[in-house]
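tokens incoming
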């Protein structure tokens, strides 16, 4: 039944390509939520949560560069990918748009909004860390990629199955990530080596909601520990809000669609109402 409903929504939606080529699916009416998945995912992963949001929002699902149906720019950098996301955002109505993104998708959205904060009224970032994802010395990087080249399939399997303790989810994550071409994944990994999102986050003026699941927010950690762990201690507390979504992990859009949709809706109403009040 769930698969039938997802198929119906996709058929009833409008598929289109932004000028820069990122593939997106738009559906529904109302204020716009631009939703961007994590590295190794695709735009369909949001569907359980999208169904909860459609009564009140227009939703635009975006495939990251090199993922799903989106082409990969050549040469690729995270900044080039962010420019493609910016092209998608430029097609929306800025006064009624909120970006929802996870992991690397959230970091690339952050880059886009640093350059053009006027594109959206807020950013919901799911498990977006402000710390470098890799801390490998320059002299060891080629050895690291050589190791990946020798057994890429094992690298992807170990990387993505480590993100959850649930056996069915491990299989699902591995299958999804394995659909991303190896050269695409390696291009992301190379640029991530030198990417430091902290300075970018300091410059962003867009209101930010950080959502953390049980995968990171364990029972032995309080909010201060989470702020430090994710690197947000480098930012003024006024620049972001922090919320915990319980009983789920990296597949939060599937595991807790009601909770995730509720957090997205509450934040969106807040930032859109703030903008409307300021314009009066």
């Amino acid at each position: 039944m769930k698969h039938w409903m997802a198929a119906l929504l996709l058929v009833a939606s409008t598929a289109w390509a932004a000028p820069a080529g990122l593939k997106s699916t738009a559906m529904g009416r109302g204020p716009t939520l631009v939703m961007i998945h994590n590295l190794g995912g695709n735009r369909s992963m949001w569907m359980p949560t999208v169904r909860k949001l459609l009564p009140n929002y227009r939703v635009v699902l975006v495939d990251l560069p090199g993922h799903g149906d989106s082409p990969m720019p050549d040469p690729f950098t995270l900044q080039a990918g962010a420019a493609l996301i910016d092209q998608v955002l430029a097609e929306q109505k800025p006064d009624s748009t909120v970006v929802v993104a996870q992991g690397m998708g959230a970091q690339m959205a952050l880059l886009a909004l640093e350059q053009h904060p006027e594109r959206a009224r807020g950013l919901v970032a799911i498990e977006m860390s402000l710390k470098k994802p890799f801390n490998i010395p320059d002299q060891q990087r080629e050895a690291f990629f050589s190791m990946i080249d020798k057994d890429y399939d094992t690298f992807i399997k170990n990387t993505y199955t480590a993100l959850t303790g649930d056996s069915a989810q491990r299989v699902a994550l591995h299958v999804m990530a394995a659909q991303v071409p190896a050269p695409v994944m390696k291009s992301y990994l190379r640029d991530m080596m030198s990417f430091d999102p902290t300075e970018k986050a300091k410059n962003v003026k867009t209101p930010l909601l950080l959502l953390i699941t049980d995968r990171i927010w364990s029972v032995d950690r309080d909010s201060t520990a989470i702020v430090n762990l994710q690197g947000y201690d480098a930012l003024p507390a006024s620049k972001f809000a922090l919320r915990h979504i319980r009983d789920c992990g990296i597949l939060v859009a599937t595991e807790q669609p009601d909770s995730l949709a509720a957090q997205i809706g509450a934040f969106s109403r807040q930032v859109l109402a703030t903008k409307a009040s300021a314009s009066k």
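note: The beta strands are 14-17, 23-27, 32-36, 58-62, 97-102, 122-126, 208-213, 240-245.
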